[in-house]
Amino acid sequence: MAANVRGGTVKPHVQAFADATVALGATSWGTYEGHQPTRDRALDLFVQNNPVGKATGDRITSFALDNWRKFGLEYVIFRRFINSNDGRGWRQMPDRGSPTANHMDHVHASFKVDVPGFSTQTVNYPVPLVPTNLGQPIVLVPLSVSRALDVPGNARTAGQKLGIWELNAGPAQLFRQTPRAANASQIIVLDGSELVIDERLDDGTVQLWPYHGRDNQQWVFEAAEIVGVWRIKNVASGRYLGWVGSATQTTPTYFATVLVDQRRG
């Protein structure tokens, strides 16, 4: 799918990079006269200034770092951090006073004048995402409330029901996905514990419980229409993980799985 870059025509390798980010969740691109380094060698990839947008921006910057030479990148900026892929890593920039000036709501990518031998025929475009955060700490953010699934008081006891709280990425909000190869489902483990998310089949509430391997502790992440957003269905009941009263629902709640990344705030 071609990305519609507003503000003018960009160089072929810049356009190809924009096209590649469609599968990563990018939906809006732009440039303008005076854009650094030049209008046709610069690209802004707009995201929401919230946890879902941050996850999208992180995917875009990771893709840029992994494909640096292929697309002729010079540097990328996101959320007040700049990376030139020169061994110095992510470096914080001065506060410029507004979310847009601080690149909180967009990734800025700068490109070289030319990429010798570049051809769109050599680009391996990413495929739409499936869960790739397996084994890494994530926060589960329901899109309907923009808060996070939370263990009240960080109580790590069997039978503790889940709740919802302001997003803080603290220990009570960190989970890890562990795949179950037999049926493509996953176990959702409270980070740093032996407790998993478990559905009580008698009343449909969701709780923490020691792992026993039965289907009510297994969840299928169904891709939604937005990249990086999922419906989370229980294998035993066929119901979806929700947030109201921590109960599963037949009407799905959409969750973003936000990878906890300490490089940036």
Summarize the entry for a quick read.
The chain is mainly β. It is built from three helices and 17 strands.
Report on the structure:
- The chain is mainly beta.
- The protein has 2 domains: 5-122, no CATH class; 138-259, Trefoil (Acidic Fibroblast Growth Factor, subunit A), CATH 2.80.10.50.
- The chain is 11% helix and 29% strand.
- The strands form 5 sheets. The chain has a 7-stranded mixed sheet with strand order 1-2-3-7-4-5-6.
- Strand 11 (175-180) and strand 12 (185-190) form a beta hairpin.
- It is elongated and about 65 Å long.
- Residues 127-132 have low confidence and may be disordered.
Query: Strand portion, in percent?
Result: 25-35%
CATH topology of the largest domain: Trefoil (Acidic Fibroblast Growth Factor, subunit A)
**Count of all domains:** 2
Strand order in the sheet with the most strands? 1-2-3-7-4-5-6
Largest sheet, strands/sense/barrel: 7 strands, mixed
The low-confidence runs, each spanning 5 or more residues with pLDDT under 50, are 127-132
CATH architecture of the largest domain: Trefoil
Summing up helix and strand content along with how strands pair, one would put the structural category as: mainly beta
Rg is 20 Å
- Which percent range fits the helix content? 10-25%
Order of helices and strands: EHEEHHEEEEEEEEEEEEEE
Q: What's the CATH class of the largest domain, please?
A: Mainly Beta
Mean pLDDT: 85
